[in-house]
Amino acid sequence: MPGMTQHLLPYLIVAFVYMAVALDYWRIATQGKPVDENSFPFQLHSAMVALGLVMHGGLLYRDIFAIGSLNLGVFYALSAILWLTVLIYWLADLKHSLRSLQAFVLPPAALFVLMPGFAVKDYYVDTHGFTLFNLHILIAMVAYSLFTFAALHACLMRMAERALHQKNSWLALPDFPPLMVLDALLFKVLHIAFVLLTITLISGMLFSEEIFGKPLQFNHKTVFSIASWLIYAWLLFGRFKYGWRGKTATRWTLLGFVLLLLAYIGSRFVLHVVLGR
After folding, report:
1. What is the pLDDT of residues 174-225, one digit of tens each?
2. How much is the pTM?
3. Residue 208: CB partners within 8 Å, gap ≥ 6?
4. 26 to each of 19, 85, 101, 119, 246, how far by Cα in Å?
5. What is the pLDDT of residues 9-18, one digit of tens each?
6. What CA–CA distance (Å, rounded) separates 191 from 193?
7. What span, in angstroms and rounded, lies between the C-alpha atoms of 152 and 205?
8. φ/ψ (deg, to 5) at 126
9. Helix (H, G, I), strand (E, B), or coil: what is residue 70?
């Protein structure tokens, strides 16, 4: 038991940092008082998130990377995706003042940072000399993280829009950005994520045998991935052609994310957790 506690302690510390910031933010938000975005509490929040990112990143580097190998276990992948999502949020917050988003991003990040601590099996893959494979994984992880950010951002936009029409809404955030700012940021993220997803799919299709050691297989992962790509392509086309925004944009964003989640996380969860392979 002491050994288990010592093993989990670093993960628990990072989870505590993330949750402490989120809970303190909600404490300030529920007071309903205007708060200067440059005030000490929010500056402290930003510093604590940065500290959590450094600690979380250190744990991921230790757990995922080894000499000439890469740990692709589902718990580690989820933790890495949420780390990148928090990093994207933190960087975006420096310019757009999106502190209200931390209340939504940090709790799931706190949950997923704990998962590697309970992983009972590692899934190391020898990547020595496989530059294309490493690039494929890196681009895919960044793409998934951007889409995760976009999905959480879409949820925030829907809540913000609802709050505008309900004066007594529980969503009383003191530094809530205008919907136009949120909308513009959503599509900036989606454009970058879509390009990276396109590169991921093309590299996976053209170099499947070199990357995965076998020809491209037409399975549920491929179907869901292509379906997700089509959803996002349609959404970006609708934005360009018809100026889609608001509920239409968030609905398609979340639908595409669910399909992407089924493609990537679903297959890995079944293999690594349910089947134990």
Report:
1. 556 778 888 998 999 999 999 999 998 888 777 666 656 666 666 777 888 8
2. 0.81
3. 214, 215, 216, 217
4. 11, 20, 11, 31, 25
5. 999 999 999 9
6. 6
7. 29
8. -70, 115
9. strand
